[in-house]
Specification:
single chain, alpha/beta, Rossmann fold, 6-stranded parallel sheet, 3-stranded antiparallel sheet, 238 residues
Length: 238
Amino acid sequence: MATYVLVHGAYHGAWCYSKVKPLLESAGHKALAVDLPGHGNNIVPIEKVTFSAYVHYLNKVIDDQEEKVLLVGHSLGGMSISQVAENKHGKIKKLVYLTALLPMDNESRMSISDRVNEDSTVAHARISTQDGLATQIDNKLLKTLFYHDCSQSDLSMAKNNLVPQASEPLTAKVCLTAEKYGSVPRVYIECLRDRAIPIKMQRKMVSDVPCEYVETLDTAHSPFFSAPEELAQLLISL
């Protein structure tokens, strides 16, 4: 039996793994889908939703497990799992980046954009909230960016559950060392039809921060909706 900790990306919550979690559990594994602070049922004032709050929360989740975990991060979740691996390297069996951000030391989500010459599609889709502390994705672009190969029911579920994304976690920098973070095996799951983190960007990040190996899904940005069985089997194979 393995223990999986499933970490969502920006705007999302544990709900995005609602199809994958039971598949892992039915195969005899333990699967924990978490709500980071300010997401899902983990309600926190937006001004307290910070990158350090994400990391602190995940550190506690890891500490509560009896065995080493497979730590899976989707999209922005790649930033958090990287820093947690630095802090809890002795308790993580493997890092799994699911079409996720893969940082170098002293990088933020935004500085990765500069390094890989990211397409500005996502930036244009972000709309600042009235208080200026967070952003939302333009409703007209949600399907195009995140769910263009998903069902209408999946899209409706997402629209009902997405929350504003605090801006601070996008600019906070990771602190990673070869001795700690670098000691944890990394696997990257690339998604060929992703429009939020295009395949060119995914492969550039892996080129700069090599992983143990790379797996491929022929999906868009949300394989937990569009290909849950394939994703679950891939995770089990790890």
